[in-house]
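Reading group handout, session on sequence-to-structure problems. Before we discuss, look at one worked example. The prompt was deliberately terse, the way you'd type it at a terminal:

> structure LURP-one-related family protein

The input record follows.
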Amino acid sequence: MKLLFRQRFFSWFDSYDVFDEDGRTVYTVQGKLAWGHRLEIYDAQGRHLGTVKQEVLTFLPRFRLYVGERLVGEVWKEFTFFRPSFKMDVRGWHIAGDILEWDYYIEDAMGRRVAGLSKQLFKLTDTYVLEIGNPEDALYVLMAALAIDAAKCSSDN
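And the output record:
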C-alpha cells in the first residue's frame, strides 16, 4: 500500500491531505491550537481516528500517539551528534533514517520492514510517500510520519 501525504499550502496550522495511489483521499489531518503540535487525523468520511500530541517542556521533541482516546505509543527525537535519530514505542517497532532526515523506514522487532517513508524534494509544501506492507498498519505509520515531520519543524524553528 502506498500513501502520499502533502501539507496544505494555505493553512494557519499544520494540515495535510493523505491520498492513496489512485489519488483518492484516505485521511485528512488538521492541526489544532495547542501548546506544541496537536494533529488530529480523520478518515475520508470525517470520523476522528487518532491524534498526535507533542509533549511540552521536554528537551527534545516528544509525541504521544492516540487511536481515538487510547494512548498507543510515543515517538521522540534522541540526542545525537552526527545524525538525527528517532525512537518509537509503538507495536514494538523501531525507526531509522538517513543522515539528511529525508528517508526513514520502520521495522518490527524481528527486523522485518513495516514501512518506508520518504520526502519528495522540490515541492512547495512538505510531501511524503509512505510505502506500507500491511494496510492495517497505515494509521500507525501515518502518525509516526506526522510526529517526525513535526519534530523536524520544531527543531528548524
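Points for discussion. First: The first strand starts at residue 2 and ends at 7. Second: The chain has a mean pLDDT of 85.
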